[in-house]
Amino acid sequence: MYVKEISEIENLIQKQAQWRNRCINLIASENIVSQRVRAQAGSDFAHRYAEGHPGERYYRGTSYIDEIENQLTTNLKILFACDHAEVRPISGTNANEAVFSRFVCPGDVVMVNSTPAGGHISHHREGSLGKFTKNIIDIPLTADGYHLDLEKTMYLIEKARPKIIVLGKSLFLFPEPVQELSEVCRQYGTRIMYDAAHVLGLIAGKQFQRPLKEGAFLMTASTHKTYYGSQRGLILSNMEADDWRKIDRGAFPGSSSNHHLDTLAQMAISTYEMMEFSEQYAVDTIKNAKALAAALDRFGFDVQAKEFGYTESHQVAVNVRDFRGGERVSRNLEINDIIINMNMLPHEPLKSHDHPDGIRIGVQEMTRFGMGAVEMEHIAELIKECIIDRKPVKEEVNRFRSEYQRVKYSYDEPQPRQLKVLDGKRVKS
Ligand code: DSN
Question: How many Å lie between the centroid of ligand 1 and the Cα of residue 308?
Fold first, then answer.
């Protein structure tokens, strides 16, 4: 009865894959998984349940996922040098909710990055945090807007005694001063929560700050931005066992029931890829972001934080008010198969969220396809031609992108041909 409708959906799925494969994808919160990880999407685990912990499930039939989950947890503890890893949240927001639901009570003060400053929606009054307290205050920023004002923040911590300060954000150009705040936070009983969603892969690759080492009480994250895993969430920490039990209950039954076992198995594979390749990937990603920022600046764009070297992450922020704002610019780029998102910049009032001055660009996905500084220069040129010269660039975007199809930093790469022994002779396999 619905055969035609189903075909239409299948057709849309195919069209999406073909289209985004022709595009220069620069959304800072996305990435692609390797072929090897993708091949496991929709495995038998996609149909199963496994509430609880490996070996102590509420369901039978879980012995294989138990083994996978144990391996993943062990590997994450090694990769991030921490005592605890909670892998059951199915998204970054879900991970944040697991924390807020156990550590924030009505009336508690919590300090966060404001939305224009880049704070994630789950840290806010309208998002997950707002379900647990309304007493949410913004972290003060320095005049440039991209750094926390240390003196004012310390003063506020002393006066307001927040239960938690949430560092880490979605417009995330520079490391947060975790170490610098850790002493004053200890003194006033404030716990530092670090939302590493955007920079998890850079932390894994040891090219960004190490929040847990610097004094963060815990780190939450999603697993599919600079950490090129399946779409899930994580909580990592060195906290005491009593506190960790609260996180455990926050994750299940607090913020999830079943935890989507097929993407968990994919995440276990991605984590091995990260263990092997994240260092080089993080180095290349940050180098590319700096190269793209410098080229856009040279072509006449108002690239943010120039006096600080533009960026130390995978992101670049640009004020495009002179080109009719982020909404118009992102739309024009999309017509030309360059995909970015409009973004509020720190100087903007909250009400500008539908028509902000800014765009946010992330280079992590194109880096994964093997692009380097030369390619970043070409992407900047295409953006300039599209936005400043108002020329169509779609054809060149598609041609250029067709040259970058293989997912690097993974076991998808052609391996050196193995020599194997056959009948006493060494031959190529
Ligand atoms: N809102 C997403 C981002 O684009 O940064 C993260 O969840």
Answer: 24
